[in-house]
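In the previous chapter we treated chains in isolation. Here, by contrast, the input contains two separate entities that must be folded as one system, with a combined length of 664 residues.
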Amino acid sequence: MMSQTAAVTEARPAAVVAAARRRIAAAQRALLLTHVAPDGDAIGSLLGLGLALRAAGKTVSLACADPVPDMFEFLPAAGEIARAFSGEFDLIVALDAADPGRLGALGEALPRPPDLLFDHHLTNPGYADLNLIDVSAASTAELIVEHLPALGLPLTRPAAECLLAGIITDTLGFRTANTTAKTLALAQQLMAAGASLPEVYDKAFYKRSFAAVRLWAEGLARIQLEDRLVWTELTLEARRAARYYGQGDADLINVLTSVREADIAVIFVERNDGKVKISWRAAPGFNVAALAAAFGGGGHAPAAGAEVAGSLDEVKTRVLKATRELLAADHP
Amino acid sequence: MMSQTAAVTEARPAAVVAAARRRIAAAQRALLLTHVAPDGDAIGSLLGLGLALRAAGKTVSLACADPVPDMFEFLPAAGEIARAFSGEFDLIVALDAADPGRLGALGEALPRPPDLLFDHHLTNPGYADLNLIDVSAASTAELIVEHLPALGLPLTRPAAECLLAGIITDTLGFRTANTTAKTLALAQQLMAAGASLPEVYDKAFYKRSFAAVRLWAEGLARIQLEDRLVWTELTLEARRAARYYGQGDADLINVLTSVREADIAVIFVERNDGKVKISWRAAPGFNVAALAAAFGGGGHAPAAGAEVAGSLDEVKTRVLKATRELLAADHP
């Protein structure tokens, strides 16, 4: 059934949307799930569709296996997102999750595959009964906004705020290469529904903690540029000095990708489990996904990551060597 | 005549636009000017309107008293912007310049006040014959895009790229409080005319030199937060260490304003003329313009600046004291 439905998705998306509309109209108790390590599109899509369903009279449960990041807690109903679910549901919806594994433990606990799936990831196999997948959408939130009317769902102001957060964060503030005129048109619809672009932009994307900026200071103090490769490292000591207790690099990678003289940016994050987390970002024409895969990780051509066991210096030496080879091979 | 025309601007903008359309239709040789220390809106508006006029068959000269910043050199016709002008013109247009003094030496050299003015600054007195001033526009470029059809001018792809650069840079990437649904709608029109949002965004706003990022590192190494005030300094030594030879702070102020725990951000830039350049940014509810004025500078409530003679330490002490008093007074 899955492959049949997936075929319908590709050949006749309007038929899938119509079927989804009927399924939603008939449903009373909905469970919505999004992926582990949720980003702004995961949370924004989950809350946006959830609030639209609730405005249409459905009982809605929201769940994510991981906690909601601090900067999204201002969104309406963010506090309702649970780490687990219980009960019976006549509509199960997966959001922004490229494969069932991305739902984490929640996916394993489902009584059946999701009834409905909204996603924009290229690699999504279409694991739900009805799959609304559009890889041309710059975010899953964008895809939802576009289809709300056809799905018979209202766009309320709270839903609009959540969906706008999804669009802004997944396009890095309307900056990514997949941001289209349609993206802007849909963002306008959300503003017309009452969402404040400046407010959502500030809270969901722009504002960061002082500790995060201090972590930037630590990372930028060690930044290096050589032959169109820019990189830096964040040691455990730097994390302590900055008093930054979050995971990852506090989006410092976005500062590195802004360096005009570089085609590839890399950040090495030392962890306390003996591994080093590596993030790559590449300009168009370079594919860092293959590089990440060679180190046991994955991702997309322009953005990929991996976790490698070893000391920071040892991992850095190996990874920088391989990255330099990619740079030389792709642009000899 | 000026005050009469200004009154017309306010009372019947459509009449001013109609008069501007006739003036443009009758013109053959146009001179377009923008303000000193040009930003993206100054350059984008100048080039955008200039290229539209040229596409309509006019002979167009473009001038600015100061050089075009590096990041805008990719824009079509940017190389044609001259530091001076000569010849006879039957249409003189001023862009994004809040008062005639902002045109610098070029303003003094004009044979008459500008025939036409496009601006969005609140303080603009309307010093041209026909004044198209809209303080609700988030950029002068936005105002131009909106009025191009009524002015009888075509929107070509090169013009669209320049105007999009103006919109993106003046809204700090669609982030400022004055970014509206109309802003997004007009950006869409520019994309429909062939401008690439991701490309223009990257080149005009996002990408910066490695030296600029190294200057950030120097500034962030000294960042301090105290009682909702965040500040840092950029010494001459830091500038040398970073090998950053540009003026100002390389937009480091935008990193400081991202600190969630602060309401006011200040940067002190040590200069080699015995002065210290100060930039303030404030959250809604605070007015740093009055503070800047007290130090001989100026600006708007949320963003202001001043140049103060004295050593870095001495100026810093005085300015931080006054800024703390403002913070305490506005939110006691």
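The CA atoms of residues 47 and 169 of chain A lie 14 Å apart. The first strand of chain A starts at residue 29 and ends at 34. Compare these points with the single-chain example from earlier in the chapter.
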